[in-house]
Amino acid sequence: MADELRFHPPSLREAGQGLSEVGERLAAEWQALVAAAQGMGDIFGDDDVGSLIAATYQAAQQIAEESYGSAAAGFGEFGGGLTDMAATYEQTEQATTEDVQDVGGAV
User: Fold this and answer.
1) Which of 63, 98, 84, 75 is nearest to 21 (CA)?
2) How do the domains of the chain map onto residue ranges?
């Protein structure tokens, strides 16, 4: 049937693992960027203008931290969901196969 829905657990599992890895890499890359920026020290200076720029930068960094953190966590959650889905489909397939064999043996 053209409208038939099919699942391939190994592909779901692989995609889930890939998404989880993307989330982990995104988090690691963000942390590396933050560490590099912090490693530069006080680049804004001690004057009034530098203080304003620093405050603006810190606000922008906080927004970016929330965005990147949320995206990394989301990739991990979606990856975990796909991995769980693969396991569920495999368990369901196994249970269905056993049920059909039981019925066939009883006949």
Assistant:
1) 75
2) 11-99
